[in-house]
Amino acid sequence: MIDLIQTLGAGLLIGFVYGLLGLGIVIIFRASEAFNFAIGEFLVVGSFLFYIFFFDLHLPFIIALPLGLLASAAVGALVEKLSIKPLLGRSGLSMTIITLGLASVLRALVQLIFGAHSYSFFLDLPDITLEVSTLLFPSERIWAGLLSFIAFGLIIFLLFRTRWGVAIRATSESQPKAMAFGIDARFILLIVWALSAMCIAVAGVMISNFGALSYLTGIAGLRAIPVVLIGGMDSIGGALIGGLIVGLCEALVGSYVEPLGLVGFKDVAPYLLLLIVLFIRPYGLFGTVRIERV
Q1: Which residue of 52, 145, 204, 222 is most buried, as measured by CB atoms within 10 A?
Q2: Would you list the domain boundaries of the chain?
Q3: Per-residue model confidence as pLDDT tens for the chain (294 residues)
């Protein structure tokens, strides 16, 4: 029973990080119906920007993190302006295809600037390790879950409790209607990409804190795919639930299935779970069911 509680707790903590990754995809999809396949590269870029402020410039974490997030937001806005804005008015599929090429460009730039080797990454935050009897939750995991949950909450507050959030949600519902009411949909889309880049950067910093940072760290961004497809492509709450489900799935498989000899199966399990969910709920657990007349 203790082992099960340990496993479930670890799964929930990493699940908050995955949920934040999923949120970065969902808010872009809601605004433009485009799926950002460059999420792994955004994760690496955001992590390296924070690395510069925290490790190279030796700024305190409480200053380096906001600066890193602002720099990530600037990159997200620049990417939107250069590659997505020219496609406004076209189908979401066109923007989605662009993100595939964008992923290759960003990956090449990261390798060119930072090289292919790994960078040691340890935030040295206050130790909040939780140890109760035989239960042990490392400080890094707790910080990852806690900061990801706080970031998720701040984005929810922005979307549902501020005027900017109203404009973003209006644009997500219908760009033509939003523009008819005087909302600059083009500028809102730029803001959405900036917010998405910040979400992904927070998740990237937390994931990098588990070990090292390199251009290969972007592989972790692929976890956002089962997260958003399980939770629902256009569901903000579904991103969090999907993240928790994927985190629990990984933890349970890693603790109870891999020891049976299926090494590495926890990396495959979320995608198998995704297939099962899509067979039952093609639009995800909380996604909007769309009925198209032929």
Answers
A1: 204
A2: 2-280
A3: 778 889 999 999 999 999 999 999 999 998 888 899 999 999 999 999 999 999 999 999 999 999 999 999 999 999 999 988 887 767 778 888 999 999 999 999 999 999 888 898 888 889 998 888 788 889 999 999 999 999 999 999 999 989 888 888 888 877 777 777 788 888 999 999 999 999 999 999 999 998 889 988 999 888 899 999 999 998 999 999 999 999 999 999 999 988 888 888 888 999 999 999 999 998 889 987 765 444
Which among 127, 107, 117 is positioned nearest to 45, based on CA atoms? 107
Residue 136, phi then psi, degrees to nearest 5: -145, 120
Give the CA distances from residue 149 to residues 9, 73, 122, 133, 258, in Å, rounded to whole numbers and listed in that order: 14, 19, 20, 26, 28
DSSP bridge pairs for 213: 119
Strand positions, DSSP E, 109-179: 119-120, 130-132, 135-137
CATH for the stretch 2-280: 1.10.3470
What global pTM score does this model have?
Answer: 0.93
